[in-house]
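User: My instructor asked us to take a sequence, write out its structure as tokens, and then describe one feature of it. I'm not sure where to start. Here is the sequence I was given:
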Amino acid sequence: MAQLAGTYVPSTLEWVREQIALYERTGGREGSTLRDTGIPVIIVAMRGAKSGNVRKIALMRVEHAGEYALVASKGGAPDNPDWYQNLVAHPDEVTVQDGTEPFFARVRLVEGAEYDVWWQRAVAVFPQYAIYKDKTSRRIPMFVASPMTDGSQ
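Assistant: Let's start with the prediction itself. The structure tokens for your sequence are:
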């Protein structure tokens, strides 16, 4: 099973901790949607930019051809979510779990036309992203996570 080495430090938010634990414990059979919305989520594990500890988040499942968009919306807040810096600092120390088993992934920030295509996919899955975009003056960053196929990690 793909797993980042190191100390896992759970979220400070109880509902996030519980959802991640439930999702991982059941291989995604439970805890696989954003609360009661019915919209699927994935679990993303990453290395902390400052601490080096393993952090995990649940994000909307925006998948296309085996890749996943990781939308740093933070609900339209004026600043990026804390996990944004983790992915910038450690783009090759990431796992994505979409179902029973996590896999190692590399992430990259997307820009330009590629951003626009992924943004449309993200809004199609979670229309609230369009509202978040209108709430903030920042361009909401988006990473694309691609499975590692070269045996890394």
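For the description part of your assignment, you could build on this observation: The chain has four helices and seven strands. Try explaining in your own words what that tells you about the chain.
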